[in-house]
Amino acid sequence: MTPRLARVCATCLSHKVNQNDLRISSLARTKWFGTGPKGPDGDGDGSGAQVPSGPTLPPFSWGASRCGRRPLSPLERVSQMLPQESLSDEVWELREKRTREENEDTETQTPEKLNEDTDVHEQPGDDDGVLEVMTHAHVLPEERVMCFGEVVLAEYRRRRRLELQKMFQLEKGCKLGSSWGSVDHDVIQGCHAGTVLRTTLGIPMLIRRPSLEEFTLFMKRGPAIAYPKDASAMLMMMDVSEGDRVLESGSGSGAMSLFLSRAVGSSGNVLSVEVRSDHHRRAVLNYERWRSSWKLRSGKAWPENVHFHLGDLINSAPLLAGRSFSSVALDMINPHLALHTVVPHLRTGGVCAVYQANITQIIDLMEGLRCSTLPLVCERIIEVQHRDWLLAPSLKKDGSFHQRRKSPGEEATESENEDGGKEGQVSAAHFPFGSVPYVARPHPEQNGHTGFLVKMRKISR
Ligand SMILES: C[S@@+](CC[C@H](N)C(=O)[O-])C[C@H]1O[C@@H](n2cnc3c(N)ncnc32)[C@H](O)[C@@H]1O
What we know:
It is an enzyme of class 2 (transferase). This protein is α+β, with helices and mostly antiparallel strands. The chain is about 30% helix and about 20% strand. The protein has 16 helices and 18 strands. It has helices at about 5-10, 20-30, 40-45, 65, 75-80, 90-105, 110-115, 185-190, 210-220, 230-240, 255-265, 275-300, 315-320, 340, 360-370, 410-420; strands spanning about 35, 120, 130, 150-160, 160-170, 175-180, 185, 195-200, 205-210, 245-250, 270-275, 305-310, 325-330, 345-355, 375-380, 390-395, 440, 450-460. The strands form 5 sheets. Strands 12-11-10-13-14-18-15 form a 7-stranded mixed sheet, with helices on both faces. Helix 10 (about 230-240) crosses helix 11 (about 255-265). It is globular. About 30% of the residues are buried. The site of S-adenosylmethionine has 22 residues, from helix 11 and strand 11.
């Protein structure tokens, strides 16, 4: 591996990016992006798009390695996974050499045979728009390919940065367009989730299925959502488990409803109360969109266990009459005003978790609790913080790796081993593993504040 390529590999070590800010900033850097039927190629909209430069080469064919000829070298494999503009001239030369060899080899094959064996997708009407599947993961039983109607996620990472992340629904005849080129939805359809496809500009774009966390972050929003890190802490506070009955308010954009839906499973249920009809509609739409995509991706139905009710929780005594809940999640304005309606229906020992953005709102809640005779005790007030870290092999200025310095003791043991070691035995110091030191520090881009969580338990006095 050349020092230059090693440097590129190192800088491409992925980190968990800031979910809110970085995504916003990465999208802000995107000059053009769309997933509609017309792409920048079609309507000329993306003419001003910044295109990373790099030598022009015929695209790789993976077919060769699949039909029993020379397997790819580690250098070739790695270079194909990396942003093309970051490759050194040396790597491009090697790639050129391989392409030439490939062409010589394929001359002996009939075109029909080549078409059968290779996995190159040609875009109709796109002169240089050859898209290709860049990874051929082993297909496992019950693995399902992506299909029209499914919600998928496109991702492009360059060096340490997540340049683009976009969630969209696969639709026949549509195009995923961006400043980095476009990919036809028809090409994505039929690929396995987690496939790297090249855009029309040769940029490797990872196409995969979003997790529930990602779906809630990218879905269309009405009001602000309960952020996944906070939602999972709330689920833990409330100790939500399979079969539980949970009351939630307000439904908002439906993020918390989705997390609750997964936690209570098909034997449990969630009652989600929302006062605004537009928010109520948005929550229902997001819930249904996730459910239908889930059915397509897994072949199994997502439980229909959330009942979305349009109404004011404060005046919901008639709705709650005769019901009992294992726990309650409140993410609404003035939650202390709803406690007198809700608490009689919370089982003794159950938890009411409240999510609020400002600490002054928590003070109001505490003061409301102090002035009431409700059998509730506040157990905890927390803020959940995730700290992202940067971790990469330590590099010299010339791009080569630093080497870990041996202690005098290690050096002595090593020379003893070399002298007295049995023939054929290799000292551990000869293995490259562990020879490179790493740098590790908090990532410069961190998540900002999202909210405070309050855990209140119902007790019997
Ligand atoms: C921040 S949003 C909730 C977001 C939601 N947890 C999510 O994850 O998408 C707050 C919601 O509470 C609703 N709300 C406020 N007061 C309410 C009340 N008295 N009864 C029901 N809903 C209420 C608002 O209309 C708003 O949609």
